[in-house]
């Protein structure tokens, strides 16, 4: 007789009065949480039935967002839910429209801490710590160039970067390009570190967001790539303009 080993458990109603206690207990006993199950996935496609697209689908979307899933396709197959919001049937699919609104709000968030719509910036520590960052197109060019330089790049850790700015430099450019003074919220990376470690201790890998900000922005981290170690020239990568990149971002949002 073969033994049955149960590792993954799906709980319907996991956010309810009883369900949330069952979820907690199963996680405490070593069963995999939804966030852990989605960690490493690039995309999630939800085909949940209309009657179950309230808290259940929201919980799925929240978990996907927390662990950095790149694309979430909600259960929006069938009628245009935007056209029935004021009809009786709209009450049944209200969870769908609420989720789409939430996803759109999440999509507008900027990982660097700059809210273009509200003209609000989050500055970590002094905001004067340089960090490395790159445009996606630049990274794609780097990958292609590496493959075209097989001998020069063989068995090497390749370091490239579009820019190595500080948060304050980005803020200054944003204020110039929008013609507005931005509100600033100052955040201590020490507090972020504590919050991230507390999450991690509970097995919550959304701590990556806090810990990444600490790694990038904490005063004295010293992560910029030294000029003599950057492979930009070796890979014949084009020079990129920080102000030009920010200007395109502002223009795409219809602000300038």
Automatic annotation (TrEMBL):
Keywords assigned: NADP, Oxidoreductase
Occurrences of domain NmrA-like (ranges): 32-110
A GO term for molecular function: oxidoreductase activity
Keyword match Transferase: no
Pfam families named in the record: NmrA (PF05368)
Entries under SUPFAM superfamilies matching the protein: NAD(P)-binding Rossmann-fold domains
Keyword Cytoplasm: no
Protein name according to UniProt: NmrA-like domain-containing protein
